[in-house]
Amino acid sequence: MIWSILGLIGGGSFIVNGFGVLTDPSCDTVGFGGGRAVQVTCYEAGAPMSGEFSGTIAGIGMLAVGSLILYFAWRNFKRA
């Protein structure tokens, strides 16, 4: 049950970060990093360090991953 709760929190954080990337007007490219926690860094156009993904693709991808995590965590949470 604790893992389902942690999954709900983790999926929610992906969704919040995805909306943050999509609604940030200065986020043209996105770089991901971090170890156990996902770290999202936004770069403006023309920045010396550019990210690996465009802001739109990264935001939509994070929303999709977060939705999948929430789906499976909620399904397991309802079973317990």
Structure description:
The longest helix is centred in the C-terminal third of the chain and has 25 residues, at 55-79. This protein has helices spanning 2-23, 55-79, and strands at 29-33, 39-43, 53-54. It is elongated, with a radius of gyration of 14 Å. The protein has a 3-stranded antiparallel β-sheet with strand order 2-1-3. It is an alpha+beta fold. The protein contains 2 helices and 3 strands, in the order αβββα.
Order of helices and strands: HEEEH
Average predicted confidence as pLDDT: 86
Category by helix and strand content = alpha+beta
Query: What is the general shape?
Result: elongated
How far apart are the termini?
6 Å
Helix content: 55-70%
* Number of DSSP E strands: 3
Uncertain segments of ≥5 residues (pLDDT<50)? none
Strand content: 15-25%
Major sheet: 3 strands, antiparallel
Strand order of the largest sheet: 2-1-3
Continuous helix count: 2
Rg, nearest Å: 14 Å
